[in-house]
From TrEMBL:
Species name: Lipingzhangella rawalii
Family: Belongs to the LOG family.
Taxonomic superkingdom: Bacteria
Protein name in UniProt: Cytokinin riboside 5'-monophosphate phosphoribohydrolase
Entries under Gene3D superfamilies matching the protein: 3.40.50.450
Keywords assigned by UniProt, alphabetized: Cytokinin biosynthesis, Hydrolase
Enzyme class: hydrolase
InterPro entries assigned: LOG (IPR005269), LOG_fam (IPR031100), LOG_family_nucleotidases (IPR052341)
Claim: Mitochondrion is one of the keywords in the record: no
Reactions it catalyzes: 9-ribosyl-trans-zeatin 5'-phosphate + H2O = trans-zeatin + D-ribose 5-phosphate; N(6)-(dimethylallyl)adenosine 5'-phosphate + H2O = N(6)-dimethylallyladenine + D-ribose 5-phosphate
Enzyme nomenclature, EC number: 3.2.2.n1
Length: 241
């Protein structure tokens, strides 16, 4: 008689090898590691790692912005101040873990004594999370990483940026617009940078009936890092009491 996990096998039903033996013997074709069912398992493991790492993080805010801002530039310093003020107010700061404004926001959070998180993404070129990330994870799949930003933040702060930042901004407001997520603040920092986009949203998207009357109000604009924290805080108090 052989027990194999929950199974009981007797007589000719008993295989010549054990389950462990079959697992440990390295043989057979390997092309299955490039198949979709295998990828599904890897995707699952990214969710498990992400949830495991982030589920005990306290109230957090995601900060997005250009990967290209130079250290010490005005925009880098703005991101650093935003990260610092959020951390001082008790919020964990989550960024994409990359260079530029992501690094600056992580730096601000770390130096203010807060928790600094970076959710990195595997890219075609070598890159690790920036040096100011205290808790970091690097994802293979963009959509898994995006779930983490949304699931674990109370607000999105969007600094000036390019396609990556725009993608994050529009994903957030689409989720709020379609009721796929409980409403949370989406704050655009930099009235000169974002003003043109906001005007286009109002004058073209709304006027042409592509969005609802109130949809432009899904985002708020400011230049002031203190105002960012005030907006986050106010939404937090309204939501959690
Ligand atoms: C382009 C360079 C590095 C890219 N490295 C990135 N690492 C992590 N996250 C990134 C990176 N690039 C984009 N992101 C995400 O998009 C936003 C910034 O993109 P943008 O196009 O620069 O606006 C950012 O919030 C990230 O989440 C070379 O230095």
């Amino acid at each position: 008689m052989r027990r194999a996990g929950p199974l009981t096998l007797r007589g000719s039903a008993i295989p010549e090898t054990t389950t462990d033996q079959r697992l440990l013997d390295r043989r057979g074709p390997t092309d299955w590691v490039h198949t979709d069912p295998w990828r599904v398992l890897r995707i699952q493991s990214e969710f498990v790692e992400g949830f495991g790492l982030l589920s005990e993080v306290g109230h957090a805010v995601s900060v997005f912005g250009s990967a290209r801002a130079a250290r010490g530039s005005e925009r880098y310093l703005l991101a650093e101040e935003v990260g610092g003020r959020l951390a001082t107010d008790g919020y964990t700061v989550i960024t994409g873990g990359g260079p530029g404004m992501m690094e600056a926001a992580n730096k601000g959070a770390r130096e203010a004594g807060g928790t600094s998180i970076g959710l990195g993404i595997e890219l075609p070129f070598e890159q690790s999370v920036n040096d100011y990330v205290d808790i970091g994870v690097t994802f293979r799949y963009f959509f898994v990483r995006k779930t983490m930003f949304v699931k674990y933040s109370q607000a999105f702060v969007v600094l000036p940026g390019g396609f990556g930042t725009l993608d994050e901004l529009f994903e957030a407001i689409t989720l709020v617009q379609t009721g796929k997520v409980t409403r949370f603040p989406v704050i655009l920092v930099g009235t000169e940078f974002w003003g043109g986009l906001h005007d286009w949203i109002v004058k073209t998207l709304r006027t042409e009936g592509m969005i609802s009357e109130g949809d432009p109000d899904l985002v708020q604009l400011t230049d002031d890092p203190a105002e960012v924290v005030r907006i986050v805080h106010e939404a937090h108090v309204n939501h959690f009491g």
